[in-house]
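Field reference: sequence -> structure
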Amino acid sequence: MAKRCFDLVCAGLGLLALAPALALVALWIKLDSSGPVLFRQQRVGRHGKLFFIHKFRTMKTGAQGSQLTVGADPRITHAGRLLRAAKLDELPQLWDVLRGAMSLVGPRPEVPAYVALYPEEMRRIVLSVRPGITDPASLQYRNEGILLAQAADPEREYIEVLMPAKLALSKRYVEQAGLLTDIRLIFATLQALVR
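Structure field:
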């Protein structure tokens, strides 16, 4: 209950405080390329329930291809490249926190195709909590696209190396989760963004 109250207060205040910046980012996206401002994608949430995550659109409209973003992906717009580098594309997820689909801190929500590959025990633990905007795995693998770009087969590298490592971090988070842990992770995320 304390975690949910913390999420509601912080997400609500965050959306209010960032409203002018969010409007400017939305305008920038519209001026930079044609298409909607927001991108919606189905992800797997708590207890395996599907939901739509919201982000600022960073790819060209109608872009097809891998669900992974690898290195200098040609599908990414000019504005999108900068938004991704600063992680500003994630800000609309504050709305997902307000509506109860996500938390500020929790395992990052994955697409159904990759969740289907989770070991059963790992799926049970990681999906027992609301997914989050940030978590230990997002901090450790902040430059995931660069790592994947160095692999001969990015998809295989993600499934066999990165995904298991991220799941292990998510499992540890779930087992040790608490309000103080969340606050520390939020500050660590803000520090990483400033750097």
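Note: Residues 144 and 151 are 11 Å apart (CA to CA).
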